[in-house]
Specification:
The protein is α/β, with parallel strands linked by helices. The protein contains twelve helices and 13 strands. It folds into two domains: 73 residues, DNA polymerase, domain 1; 286 residues, TIM Barrel (Alpha-Beta Barrel), CATH 3.20.20.
Length: 368
C-alpha cells in the first residue's frame, strides 16, 4: 500500500489528505507519488507553518496552474471552535471540536512579554488523578498529530500571530499540560512537537516547550533523547501510599522509579532544570514534613518546584492549602536551594485553570 493510500484510509471521506500533521518525509513521499519535486515540499511547508495560510491560492510562490491541483488532493485543517472565552485576566480558552465530533480544550495564558499555549494530547484522560477534574472524564481517544499541532495553529489564528517571525510575539511557549497524559500518546505528541520546532516553520525553541507527565517512567529517557524539550513531573506527593491514592499511576511506577528516570534524563542539568509540579491540598500534602521530604527526594536533580494552589471544581474532594501553609512550604524548599514559585491561578472564572478543563467541556456539550 502506498503512503497516499494509507493516508486516505485515515480521512473521513477518502477525497483529500490533510497536510497538517504530516512529517516532512511523509509530505515528500505523498508529493513524490503525484510527481511533484521535493522543493515543493519546502515551499508548501513554509506557507503552512511559517505564514499560517489555509488556502493553496494564497501560496504565491506556487504556480497558479498547480494551486487547484493541490487543493483538489489536499487540505490544510484546523480544529473547529465550539466556544472561545476570555478571562478577566486575559487567559483565553477554546473548546475545540474535531472531525468525529469529539472535543478537547486549549488555553492561552498571556504574560507581559510572552505567552504559553496549553495543549491537550487526548480527549478525556487515561489517568484518574483525584484532584484533577479532567481525570474524572473517561478516556475517549488519543489526538492525532494534526489535532495536536492544529491547536497551536488555531491559537496563532486567533491572535493574528502569523507569520512566525511577527513581533511582538504573543505565543512564545508550548506546554503539553492540557487534557490527557502526553506519554500515553507519545508518537503523535512527538510528531507534533517536531513540526512545532521545525526551523522553517513555526520554529519554537525546544527550550520553550515543556512536556508534563504524571510519571510514565520508562518513556522519560526517550523524551530527553528524541525530543530534548523541558520536562515537568506531576509529583504532588512525597510518599507512595498517598501518591498511590491521588496519582494512581504511582502504583505502576512508584516515586523511587520515577525519580531514577528523572536523574537519567539526558537534558537534566542546571540550565535545563526538571520542573516538579506539586498541587497544594489542605491537610493532605502540605505540611513542613512533606516539604522537607520533597527536598530529600529530589536531592541531586537539577530542579525547580512549581507549587500549584488547588483549583476547585464542583464536587472536588479537596480544598486549597492556606496561603500561610503554602508560604511555609515554599520557604523550606527555597532555603534548601531550590526555586519554588507559587503559580498564580489563571482563568478560574472561565474554568481554564489547571485541573478544571473538563467542567467547561461537559457543560458546553449539553448545549450543542
Amino acid at each position: 500500500m502506498s503512503i497516499t493510500e494509507e493516508l486516505h484510509n485515515g480521512t473521513n471521506d477518502g477525497s483529500q489528505i490533510d497536510l497538517v500533521g504530516l512529517s516532512r518525509s511523509e509530505m515528500e513521499a505523498v508529493f513524490d507519488e503525484i510527481g511533484l519535486p521535493r522543493f515543493r515540499v519546502k515551499q508548501v511547508w513554509h506557507w503552512i507553518y511559517h505564514h499560517g495560510v489555509r488556502e493553496f491560492s494564497e501560496m504565491t510562490t506556487i504556480a497558479k496552474e498547480l494551486q487547484p491541483k493541490l487543493a483538489a488532493g489536499f487540505m490544510i485543517s484546523r480544529p473547529g471552535v465550539t466556544t472561545e472565552k476570555t478571562s478577566t485576566d486575559g487567559t483565553r480558552k477554546w473548546l475545540l471540536n474535531f472531525s468525529d465530533g469529539k472535543m478537547a480544550e486549549t488555553v492561552h495564558i498571556p504574560e507581559e512579554d510572552r505567552g504559553a499555549v496549553c495543549i491537550s494530547s487526548q480527549v478525556g484522560c487515561t489517568l484518574t488523578c483525584k484532584f484533577c477534574h479532567t481525570g474524572t472524564q473517561r478516556m475517549v481517544r488519543n489526538l492525532s498529530s494534526a489535532e495536536i499541532v492544529g491547536q497551536f495553529m488555531l491559537a496563532r489564528d486567533s491572535y493574528r500571530a502569523w507569520p512566525s517571525s511577527k513581533e511582538p510575539r504573543q505565543l512564545t511557549n508550548v506546554v503539553m499540560m492540557g487534557m490527557g497524559e502526553p506519554l500515553y500518546n507519545y508518537e503523535n505528541v512527538a510528531k507534533a512537537l517536531r513540526i512545532i520546532t521545525d526551523e522553517e516553520g513555526i520554529n519554537i525553541s525546544r527550550r520553550r516547550i515543556t512536556l508534563s507527565t504524571a510519571g510514565v517512567a520508562p518513556l522519560i529517557p526517550k523524551v530527553g533523547k528524541e525530543l530534548g524539550v523541558q520536562l515537568a513531573i506531576s509529583l504532588h506527593a512525597v510518599h507512595d501510599d498517598l501518591r498511590d491514592e491521588i496519582v494512581p499511576i504511582n502504583k505502576k511506577y512508584p516515586i523511587a522509579e520515577l525519580l531514577d528516570a528523572c536523574r537519567s534524563y539526558p537534558k537534566a542539568k542546571n540550565s535545563r532544570r526538571i520542573t516538579f509540579e506539586y498541587v497544594m491540598l489542605k491537610g493532605v500534602n502540605d505540611t513542613p514534613a512533606d516539604a522537607r521530604e520533597l527536598v530529600r527526594l529530589i536531592r541531586g536533580i537539577p530542579a525547580k518546584i512549581n507549587l500549584i494552589p488547588f483549583n476547585p471544581w464542583p464536587g472536588a474532594p479537596y480544598d486549597c492549602s492556606t496561603n500561610d501553609d503554602i508560604a511555609v512550604f515554599a520557604g523550606i524548599i527555597n532555603r534548601a536551594g531550590y526555586s519554588s514559585p507559587v503559580r498564580t491561578p489563571r482563568g478560574r472564572d472561565i474554568l481554564a485553570a489547571c485541573g478544571q478543563l473538563k467542567t467547561a467541556s461537559e457543560r458546553e456539550r449539553k448545549h450543542i
